[in-house]
Design brief:
With about 475 residues, the protein is α/β, with parallel strands linked by helices. It has helices spanning about 5-30, 60-65, 150-165, 180-190, 205-220, 240-245, 265-270, 285-290, 295-300, 305-315, 340, 360-365, 370, 425-430, and strands at about 40, 45-50, 70-80, 90-95, 125-130, 145-150, 170-175, 195-200, 225-230, 235, 255-260, 280-285, 320-325, 350, 380, 390, 395, 410, 430-435, 440-450, 450-460, 465-475. Bound molecules: 2-acetamido-2-deoxy-beta-D-glucopyranose (2 copies).
Protein backbone atom coordinates (compact mmCIF):
# COMPACT_ATOMS: atom_id res chain seq x y z
CA UNK A 1 0.00 0.00 0.00
CA UNK A 2 1.39 3.45 -1.07
CA UNK A 3 1.83 6.38 1.28
CA UNK A 4 -1.41 8.39 1.49
CA UNK A 5 -1.28 11.51 -0.66
CA UNK A 6 -1.98 13.84 2.33
CA UNK A 7 1.06 12.58 4.20
CA UNK A 8 3.27 13.06 1.14
CA UNK A 9 2.09 16.66 0.76
CA UNK A 10 2.81 17.30 4.42
CA UNK A 11 6.31 15.93 4.07
CA UNK A 12 6.94 18.14 1.03
CA UNK A 13 5.76 21.25 2.89
CA UNK A 14 7.93 20.34 5.81
CA UNK A 15 11.03 19.99 3.62
CA UNK A 16 10.40 23.34 1.93
CA UNK A 17 10.04 25.00 5.33
CA UNK A 18 13.34 23.52 6.49
CA UNK A 19 15.11 24.80 3.37
CA UNK A 20 13.74 28.30 3.89
CA UNK A 21 14.67 28.42 7.57
CA UNK A 22 18.18 27.17 6.80
CA UNK A 23 18.67 29.73 4.04
CA UNK A 24 17.49 32.60 6.23
CA UNK A 25 19.59 31.44 9.12
CA UNK A 26 22.65 31.31 6.92
CA UNK A 27 22.13 34.87 5.72
CA UNK A 28 20.93 36.39 8.97
CA UNK A 29 22.94 34.45 11.58
CA UNK A 30 25.39 36.72 13.31
CA UNK A 31 28.83 35.93 12.03
CA UNK A 32 30.90 35.65 15.17
CA UNK A 33 34.58 35.43 14.50
CA UNK A 34 36.05 32.67 16.61
CA UNK A 35 38.56 34.81 18.48
CA UNK A 36 41.99 33.33 18.06
CA UNK A 37 44.12 33.34 21.21
CA UNK A 38 46.84 35.94 21.17
CA UNK A 39 49.59 36.44 23.69
CA UNK A 40 51.10 39.54 25.20
CA UNK A 41 54.40 39.75 26.99
CA UNK A 42 54.36 41.38 30.40
CA UNK A 43 57.33 42.14 32.64
CA UNK A 44 60.09 40.74 30.45
CA UNK A 45 59.71 37.01 30.51
CA UNK A 46 56.03 36.25 31.25
CA UNK A 47 53.51 35.98 28.44
CA UNK A 48 49.78 36.20 29.04
CA UNK A 49 47.18 34.91 26.60
CA UNK A 50 44.15 36.97 25.59
CA UNK A 51 41.96 34.61 27.68
CA UNK A 52 43.20 36.42 30.77
CA UNK A 53 40.77 39.31 31.31
CA UNK A 54 42.59 41.02 34.14
CA UNK A 55 45.99 42.22 35.31
CA UNK A 56 47.65 39.45 37.28
CA UNK A 57 50.33 40.17 39.86
CA UNK A 58 53.66 39.64 38.07
CA UNK A 59 55.57 39.08 41.32
CA UNK A 60 53.28 36.15 42.02
CA UNK A 61 53.74 34.79 38.49
CA UNK A 62 57.51 34.96 38.85
CA UNK A 63 57.39 33.28 42.24
CA UNK A 64 55.25 30.45 40.81
CA UNK A 65 57.69 30.27 37.89
CA UNK A 66 54.97 30.83 35.32
CA UNK A 67 56.21 31.67 31.82
CA UNK A 68 52.89 31.54 29.97
CA UNK A 69 49.57 32.26 31.67
CA UNK A 70 46.13 31.48 30.24
CA UNK A 71 43.92 31.96 33.30
CA UNK A 72 44.08 33.77 36.64
CA UNK A 73 41.14 33.73 39.03
CA UNK A 74 41.06 35.01 42.61
CA UNK A 75 38.37 34.37 45.13
CA UNK A 76 38.03 35.10 48.85
CA UNK A 77 37.14 32.39 51.34
CA UNK A 78 35.61 33.30 54.68
CA UNK A 79 36.09 30.60 57.32
CA UNK A 80 33.33 30.73 59.90
CA UNK A 81 33.96 28.60 63.01
CA UNK A 82 31.12 26.25 63.83
CA UNK A 83 29.45 26.15 67.23
CA UNK A 84 31.57 24.37 69.84
CA UNK A 85 31.35 20.56 69.65
CA UNK A 86 29.44 20.63 66.38
CA UNK A 87 30.90 17.65 64.49
CA UNK A 88 31.20 18.91 60.92
CA UNK A 89 31.48 16.30 58.18
CA UNK A 90 34.74 16.37 56.21
CA UNK A 91 32.85 16.76 52.91
CA UNK A 92 30.41 19.55 52.37
CA UNK A 93 28.24 20.56 49.38
CA UNK A 94 27.86 24.22 48.42
CA UNK A 95 24.88 25.31 46.35
CA UNK A 96 26.76 27.71 44.09
CA UNK A 97 29.48 27.34 41.47
CA UNK A 98 33.22 27.83 42.03
CA UNK A 99 33.74 29.59 38.71
CA UNK A 100 31.60 32.46 37.46
CA UNK A 101 29.43 31.43 34.53
CA UNK A 102 31.23 32.78 31.47
CA UNK A 103 29.66 36.02 30.21
CA UNK A 104 28.08 36.06 26.73
CA UNK A 105 30.57 37.51 24.27
CA UNK A 106 27.84 38.98 22.00
CA UNK A 107 24.74 41.03 22.82
CA UNK A 108 21.18 40.18 21.72
CA UNK A 109 21.81 41.73 18.29
CA UNK A 110 24.96 39.72 17.81
CA UNK A 111 27.40 42.57 18.27
CA UNK A 112 30.56 41.67 20.15
CA UNK A 113 30.53 42.90 23.74
CA UNK A 114 33.41 44.78 25.22
CA UNK A 115 34.11 42.73 28.38
CA UNK A 116 34.90 44.84 31.37
CA UNK A 117 38.44 43.81 32.34
CA UNK A 118 38.61 43.18 36.06
CA UNK A 119 41.54 44.99 37.53
CA UNK A 120 42.77 42.32 39.91
CA UNK A 121 41.20 39.10 38.59
CA UNK A 122 38.99 38.82 41.67
CA UNK A 123 35.47 37.36 41.70
CA UNK A 124 32.94 39.48 43.57
CA UNK A 125 31.33 36.88 45.81
CA UNK A 126 33.39 35.23 48.50
CA UNK A 127 33.04 31.56 49.34
CA UNK A 128 31.79 31.13 52.89
CA UNK A 129 32.57 27.85 54.62
CA UNK A 130 32.01 26.42 58.07
CA UNK A 131 35.10 25.10 59.80
CA UNK A 132 35.53 23.37 63.16
CA UNK A 133 36.45 25.66 66.01
CA UNK A 134 40.21 25.15 66.41
CA UNK A 135 41.25 23.69 69.76
CA UNK A 136 43.39 26.06 71.81
CA UNK A 137 46.63 25.39 73.66
CA UNK A 138 47.34 21.77 72.94
CA UNK A 139 49.38 20.25 75.75
CA UNK A 140 51.57 17.46 74.38
CA UNK A 141 54.11 17.56 77.21
CA UNK A 142 53.50 13.83 77.83
CA UNK A 143 54.86 12.88 74.39
CA UNK A 144 58.56 12.88 73.47
CA UNK A 145 59.82 12.42 69.93
CA UNK A 146 63.18 11.04 68.85
CA UNK A 147 64.84 11.43 65.46
CA UNK A 148 68.22 10.24 64.17
CA UNK A 149 69.47 12.38 61.31
CA UNK A 150 72.16 14.78 60.16
CA UNK A 151 72.39 18.43 61.06
CA UNK A 152 71.60 19.77 57.60
CA UNK A 153 68.53 17.53 57.29
CA UNK A 154 67.45 18.52 60.79
CA UNK A 155 67.86 22.15 59.76
CA UNK A 156 65.42 21.58 56.89
CA UNK A 157 63.03 19.65 59.09
CA UNK A 158 62.63 22.08 61.98
CA UNK A 159 60.41 24.39 59.94
CA UNK A 160 58.11 21.48 59.22
CA UNK A 161 58.27 20.27 62.83
CA UNK A 162 57.10 23.74 63.81
CA UNK A 163 53.74 23.12 62.11
CA UNK A 164 52.85 20.32 64.50
CA UNK A 165 55.27 20.56 67.45
CA UNK A 166 55.59 24.33 67.87
CA UNK A 167 54.15 25.70 71.11
CA UNK A 168 52.68 22.36 72.20
CA UNK A 169 55.14 21.66 75.06
CA UNK A 170 56.22 18.41 73.42
CA UNK A 171 59.97 17.67 73.21
CA UNK A 172 62.00 16.50 70.22
CA UNK A 173 65.31 14.72 70.83
CA UNK A 174 67.66 14.65 67.86
CA UNK A 175 70.74 12.43 67.61
CA UNK A 176 72.99 13.85 64.90
CA UNK A 177 76.49 13.37 63.58
CA UNK A 178 78.94 15.75 65.24
CA UNK A 179 78.57 19.14 63.54
CA UNK A 180 79.89 22.52 64.62
CA UNK A 181 76.74 24.32 63.42
CA UNK A 182 74.36 22.66 65.88
CA UNK A 183 73.88 25.90 67.82
CA UNK A 184 72.55 27.61 64.70
CA UNK A 185 69.79 25.00 64.25
CA UNK A 186 69.08 25.08 67.97
CA UNK A 187 68.49 28.84 67.75
CA UNK A 188 66.13 28.38 64.80
CA UNK A 189 64.11 25.77 66.73
CA UNK A 190 63.92 28.09 69.76
CA UNK A 191 62.49 30.85 67.58
CA UNK A 192 59.85 28.46 66.21
CA UNK A 193 58.66 27.41 69.65
CA UNK A 194 60.05 23.87 69.44
CA UNK A 195 61.66 22.24 72.48
CA UNK A 196 64.53 20.68 70.55
CA UNK A 197 67.34 18.82 72.32
CA UNK A 198 70.28 18.12 70.01
CA UNK A 199 72.82 15.47 70.99
CA UNK A 200 75.84 14.79 68.83
CA UNK A 201 76.81 11.16 68.43
CA UNK A 202 79.55 9.59 66.34
CA UNK A 203 77.80 6.21 66.26
CA UNK A 204 77.15 4.67 62.86
CA UNK A 205 73.63 5.56 61.60
CA UNK A 206 71.88 2.23 62.34
CA UNK A 207 73.29 2.15 65.89
CA UNK A 208 72.38 5.80 66.33
CA UNK A 209 68.81 5.07 65.21
CA UNK A 210 68.33 2.30 67.78
CA UNK A 211 70.14 4.37 70.42
CA UNK A 212 67.08 6.63 70.35
CA UNK A 213 65.33 4.00 72.49
CA UNK A 214 67.88 4.35 75.30
CA UNK A 215 68.19 8.10 74.77
CA UNK A 216 64.43 8.64 75.12
CA UNK A 217 64.39 6.38 78.20
CA UNK A 218 67.16 8.40 79.86
CA UNK A 219 65.16 11.56 79.28
CA UNK A 220 61.72 10.54 80.54
CA UNK A 221 60.28 13.05 82.98
CA UNK A 222 57.41 12.66 85.43
CA UNK A 223 54.72 13.51 82.86
CA UNK A 224 56.18 11.39 80.02
CA UNK A 225 53.68 8.75 78.89
CA UNK A 226 54.71 8.14 75.26
CA UNK A 227 57.98 8.16 73.37
CA UNK A 228 57.84 8.19 69.61
CA UNK A 229 60.55 7.46 67.08
CA UNK A 230 60.12 9.33 63.82
CA UNK A 231 61.98 9.95 60.57
CA UNK A 232 63.04 13.49 59.75
CA UNK A 233 60.26 13.58 57.14
CA UNK A 234 57.45 12.34 59.37
CA UNK A 235 54.71 14.96 59.46
CA UNK A 236 51.80 15.02 61.91
CA UNK A 237 48.74 16.82 60.60
CA UNK A 238 47.39 17.89 63.99
CA UNK A 239 48.88 17.58 67.46
CA UNK A 240 45.48 17.84 69.13
CA UNK A 241 44.16 14.93 67.05
CA UNK A 242 47.29 12.91 67.83
CA UNK A 243 46.92 13.54 71.56
CA UNK A 244 43.29 12.44 71.33
CA UNK A 245 44.20 9.29 69.37
CA UNK A 246 46.84 8.27 71.94
CA UNK A 247 44.43 8.83 74.80
CA UNK A 248 42.45 5.83 73.52
CA UNK A 249 45.22 3.50 74.76
CA UNK A 250 46.01 2.62 78.36
CA UNK A 251 49.55 3.99 78.48
CA UNK A 252 50.23 2.40 81.90
CA UNK A 253 50.50 -0.89 79.99
CA UNK A 254 52.98 -1.96 77.34
CA UNK A 255 51.96 -0.47 74.01
CA UNK A 256 53.75 -0.60 70.66
CA UNK A 257 51.58 1.53 68.37
CA UNK A 258 52.38 2.08 64.71
CA UNK A 259 51.25 2.00 61.11
CA UNK A 260 51.84 -0.80 58.61
CA UNK A 261 53.02 -0.11 55.11
CA UNK A 262 50.00 0.45 52.86
CA UNK A 263 51.60 -1.97 50.41
CA UNK A 264 51.64 -5.73 51.07
CA UNK A 265 54.92 -6.37 49.18
CA UNK A 266 56.64 -3.87 51.50
CA UNK A 267 55.29 -5.76 54.50
CA UNK A 268 56.62 -8.92 52.88
CA UNK A 269 60.09 -7.41 52.58
CA UNK A 270 60.28 -5.59 55.94
CA UNK A 271 57.87 -7.48 58.18
CA UNK A 272 54.73 -6.93 60.20
CA UNK A 273 55.86 -3.95 62.20
CA UNK A 274 55.35 -0.30 62.95
CA UNK A 275 56.93 1.34 59.90
CA UNK A 276 59.30 4.07 61.13
CA UNK A 277 58.18 6.88 58.86
CA UNK A 278 54.63 6.68 60.16
CA UNK A 279 55.90 7.18 63.73
CA UNK A 280 56.53 4.34 66.21
CA UNK A 281 54.93 4.97 69.60
CA UNK A 282 56.22 3.18 72.69
CA UNK A 283 54.34 3.55 75.96
CA UNK A 284 56.49 4.41 78.94
CA UNK A 285 56.51 0.90 80.51
CA UNK A 286 57.51 -0.65 77.17
CA UNK A 287 60.22 1.96 76.58
CA UNK A 288 61.73 1.24 80.01
CA UNK A 289 61.62 -2.49 79.39
CA UNK A 290 63.44 -2.15 76.06
CA UNK A 291 66.09 0.10 77.53
CA UNK A 292 67.03 -2.38 80.23
CA UNK A 293 70.80 -2.66 79.59
CA UNK A 294 70.76 -6.38 78.75
CA UNK A 295 67.79 -6.13 76.41
CA UNK A 296 69.09 -2.97 74.83
CA UNK A 297 72.55 -4.40 74.16
CA UNK A 298 71.17 -7.62 72.67
CA UNK A 299 68.90 -5.65 70.33
CA UNK A 300 71.55 -3.10 69.39
CA UNK A 301 73.71 -5.96 68.12
CA UNK A 302 71.02 -7.54 65.95
CA UNK A 303 71.53 -7.74 62.21
CA UNK A 304 68.14 -6.16 61.55
CA UNK A 305 68.25 -2.44 60.91
CA UNK A 306 66.13 0.62 61.60
CA UNK A 307 62.46 0.23 62.45
CA UNK A 308 62.87 -3.53 61.91
CA UNK A 309 65.34 -3.76 64.77
CA UNK A 310 62.77 -2.07 67.03
CA UNK A 311 60.03 -4.52 66.06
CA UNK A 312 62.19 -7.64 66.44
CA UNK A 313 63.43 -6.31 69.76
CA UNK A 314 59.85 -5.85 71.01
CA UNK A 315 58.67 -9.25 69.76
CA UNK A 316 61.74 -11.15 71.03
CA UNK A 317 61.99 -9.56 74.47
CA UNK A 318 58.48 -8.62 75.60
CA UNK A 319 54.97 -9.99 75.36
CA UNK A 320 53.85 -6.93 73.43
CA UNK A 321 52.29 -7.10 69.97
CA UNK A 322 51.93 -4.35 67.44
CA UNK A 323 48.81 -2.24 67.83
CA UNK A 324 48.01 -0.83 64.40
CA UNK A 325 46.69 2.68 64.22
CA UNK A 326 45.30 3.20 60.73
CA UNK A 327 45.76 6.96 60.94
CA UNK A 328 49.57 6.60 60.98
CA UNK A 329 50.87 6.53 57.42
CA UNK A 330 54.20 5.34 56.09
CA UNK A 331 52.96 6.15 52.54
CA UNK A 332 55.03 3.66 50.56
CA UNK A 333 53.60 5.09 47.33
CA UNK A 334 55.19 7.08 44.53
CA UNK A 335 54.18 9.53 41.82
CA UNK A 336 50.67 10.94 41.89
CA UNK A 337 49.31 10.57 45.42
CA UNK A 338 46.28 12.82 44.81
CA UNK A 339 43.81 9.98 45.38
CA UNK A 340 45.00 9.69 49.00
CA UNK A 341 44.79 13.40 49.79
CA UNK A 342 41.49 13.92 47.89
CA UNK A 343 39.71 10.93 49.45
CA UNK A 344 37.53 13.14 51.64
CA UNK A 345 38.06 10.76 54.55
CA UNK A 346 39.21 11.62 58.05
CA UNK A 347 42.65 13.24 57.54
CA UNK A 348 45.66 11.06 58.41
CA UNK A 349 47.43 11.41 61.77
CA UNK A 350 50.85 11.26 60.08
CA UNK A 351 52.27 11.27 56.55
CA UNK A 352 55.75 10.39 55.30
CA UNK A 353 57.83 10.25 52.07
CA UNK A 354 56.22 13.53 50.98
CA UNK A 355 59.50 15.08 49.83
CA UNK A 356 61.06 12.00 48.29
CA UNK A 357 58.79 9.24 46.98
CA UNK A 358 56.21 11.86 46.02
CA UNK A 359 56.06 15.64 46.32
CA UNK A 360 53.43 17.30 48.45
CA UNK A 361 54.75 20.22 50.44
CA UNK A 362 53.18 19.53 53.84
CA UNK A 363 54.43 22.87 55.18
CA UNK A 364 52.60 24.80 52.46
CA UNK A 365 49.55 22.56 52.78
CA UNK A 366 49.43 23.56 56.47
CA UNK A 367 49.79 27.34 56.16
CA UNK A 368 46.01 27.88 56.17
CA UNK A 369 45.84 26.50 59.73
CA UNK A 370 46.74 30.04 60.83
CA UNK A 371 43.22 31.04 59.72
CA UNK A 372 41.08 28.01 60.41
CA UNK A 373 43.10 25.62 62.60
CA UNK A 374 44.65 22.28 61.72
CA UNK A 375 41.24 20.58 61.75
CA UNK A 376 40.34 22.42 58.53
CA UNK A 377 43.23 20.91 56.53
CA UNK A 378 42.11 18.56 53.74
CA UNK A 379 38.46 19.43 54.35
CA UNK A 380 36.45 19.24 51.17
CA UNK A 381 33.87 21.52 49.61
CA UNK A 382 32.09 20.50 46.45
CA UNK A 383 30.59 23.26 44.31
CA UNK A 384 27.49 23.20 42.17
CA UNK A 385 29.57 23.17 38.96
CA UNK A 386 31.27 19.95 40.04
CA UNK A 387 34.57 21.47 41.20
CA UNK A 388 35.98 20.15 44.48
CA UNK A 389 38.29 22.08 46.79
CA UNK A 390 40.42 19.92 49.10
CA UNK A 391 41.82 22.53 51.46
CA UNK A 392 45.58 22.92 51.10
CA UNK A 393 45.87 20.29 48.38
CA UNK A 394 43.87 20.81 45.18
CA UNK A 395 40.93 22.09 43.20
CA UNK A 396 39.70 19.33 40.87
CA UNK A 397 36.93 18.18 38.61
CA UNK A 398 36.49 14.49 37.77
CA UNK A 399 35.94 13.66 34.10
CA UNK A 400 32.95 11.50 34.99
CA UNK A 401 30.49 12.38 37.75
CA UNK A 402 31.46 10.92 41.11
CA UNK A 403 28.91 10.67 43.92
CA UNK A 404 29.67 13.53 46.34
CA UNK A 405 29.62 11.06 49.21
CA UNK A 406 31.64 8.42 47.39
CA UNK A 407 33.43 6.15 49.86
CA UNK A 408 36.18 4.82 47.58
CA UNK A 409 39.69 6.21 47.27
CA UNK A 410 41.02 6.84 43.77
CA UNK A 411 44.13 4.70 43.19
CA UNK A 412 46.37 7.25 41.50
CA UNK A 413 49.85 6.26 42.70
CA UNK A 414 52.50 3.75 41.70
CA UNK A 415 53.90 1.17 44.05
CA UNK A 416 57.14 -0.60 44.79
CA UNK A 417 58.11 -4.26 44.67
CA UNK A 418 55.34 -5.24 42.25
CA UNK A 419 52.39 -3.86 44.21
CA UNK A 420 48.99 -4.29 42.51
CA UNK A 421 45.43 -3.12 43.30
CA UNK A 422 44.87 -5.69 46.06
CA UNK A 423 48.19 -4.80 47.68
CA UNK A 424 46.65 -1.61 49.11
CA UNK A 425 43.16 -2.71 50.09
CA UNK A 426 44.04 -3.49 53.72
CA UNK A 427 44.76 0.21 54.33
CA UNK A 428 43.14 2.18 51.51
CA UNK A 429 40.07 0.11 50.68
CA UNK A 430 37.53 0.61 49.31
CA UNK A 431 39.26 1.97 46.22
CA UNK A 432 38.40 2.79 42.59
CA UNK A 433 40.56 3.05 39.46
CA UNK A 434 42.27 6.30 38.53
CA UNK A 435 40.40 8.98 36.59
CA UNK A 436 42.99 9.71 33.91
CA UNK A 437 41.10 12.77 32.66
CA UNK A 438 40.68 14.46 36.04
CA UNK A 439 41.32 18.21 35.74
CA UNK A 440 43.52 19.45 38.60
CA UNK A 441 44.85 22.65 40.04
CA UNK A 442 47.41 21.62 42.68
CA UNK A 443 48.54 23.79 45.58
CA UNK A 444 51.98 25.18 44.80
CA UNK A 445 52.34 27.99 47.29
CA UNK A 446 50.69 29.51 50.34
CA UNK A 447 51.68 32.47 52.49
CA UNK A 448 50.39 34.19 55.59
CA UNK A 449 50.00 37.92 54.93
CA UNK A 450 48.74 39.88 57.90
CA UNK A 451 45.46 38.28 58.94
CA UNK A 452 44.89 36.38 55.74
CA UNK A 453 46.36 33.37 53.97
CA UNK A 454 46.81 33.31 50.20
CA UNK A 455 46.88 29.90 48.50
CA UNK A 456 47.83 29.36 44.86
CA UNK A 457 46.47 26.32 43.05
CA UNK A 458 48.04 25.82 39.61
CA UNK A 459 47.12 23.75 36.55
CA UNK A 460 50.30 23.39 34.49
CA UNK A 461 49.97 23.43 30.70
CA UNK A 462 53.16 24.30 28.88
CA UNK A 463 51.53 24.45 25.43
CA UNK A 464 48.40 26.49 26.15
CA UNK A 465 49.52 28.36 29.23
CA UNK A 466 49.27 27.70 32.97
CA UNK A 467 46.07 28.38 34.89
CA UNK A 468 46.04 29.79 38.40
CA UNK A 469 43.31 29.82 41.03
CA UNK A 470 44.13 31.94 44.04
CA UNK A 471 42.14 31.63 47.28
CA UNK A 472 42.46 34.26 49.97
CA UNK A 473 41.36 32.93 53.35
CA UNK A 474 40.25 35.04 56.27
CA UNK A 475 38.43 34.30 59.48
CA UNK A 476 34.75 35.18 59.59
C1 LIG B 1 62.40 36.52 34.72
O1 LIG B 1 62.18 35.38 35.55
C2 LIG B 1 63.00 35.32 36.68
C3 LIG B 1 62.61 34.05 37.45
O2 LIG B 1 63.08 32.95 36.76
C4 LIG B 1 62.82 36.53 37.56
O3 LIG B 1 63.65 36.46 38.68
C5 LIG B 1 63.11 37.76 36.76
O4 LIG B 1 62.87 38.89 37.54
C6 LIG B 1 62.27 37.81 35.50
N1 LIG B 1 62.67 38.91 34.67
C7 LIG B 1 61.88 39.94 34.42
C8 LIG B 1 62.45 40.99 33.55
O5 LIG B 1 60.76 40.02 34.86
C1 LIG C 1 69.67 26.20 57.70
O1 LIG C 1 68.69 26.63 56.79
C2 LIG C 1 68.73 28.00 56.48
C3 LIG C 1 67.58 28.31 55.56
O2 LIG C 1 66.37 28.13 56.24
C4 LIG C 1 70.08 28.32 55.84
O3 LIG C 1 70.16 29.70 55.59
C5 LIG C 1 71.20 27.89 56.78
O4 LIG C 1 72.44 28.09 56.15
C6 LIG C 1 71.05 26.44 57.16
N1 LIG C 1 72.04 26.08 58.14
C7 LIG C 1 72.67 24.91 58.14
C8 LIG C 1 73.62 24.71 59.26
O5 LIG C 1 72.52 24.06 57.29
Amino acid sequence: MGTPIVARKRLLRFLVAICLVSAFSFVLWPHVEQPSVTTTTISGNVTVTSDVQCDPDTDVLNRLNIRKLSQYVRRDVIAVPSAANDPLPIKHLLNYPLFEPSLPSVDAQGNPLEEPAQKDCKMDDPITVQVPRPPRNVDASHIDFGVATTLSRLNDSVEQFAHWAGYTRTRIFALIEPDARAAEVQAKADLLGINLYITESDEEYQRRYFSLVAHLAQNVRSQTRWSCIIDDDTFFMSMSTLVKALSEYDDTKNYYVGGLSESIPQIGVFGLMGFGGAGVFLSRPLLLELSDPDVFEACQNMDFTGDRRISICVYQNTETHLTINHGLHQLDVTGDVSGFFESGRQPPLSVHHWKSWFHTDMGKLSVVRDICGDSCLLRQWQFEDGWILTNGYSIIKYSLPVDPFEKTMELTWDGENGAVYESYLHEFGPMRPKDEQKYSYLLEDAVLEGNQVRQWYVHRDEANGDQVFELTWRAG
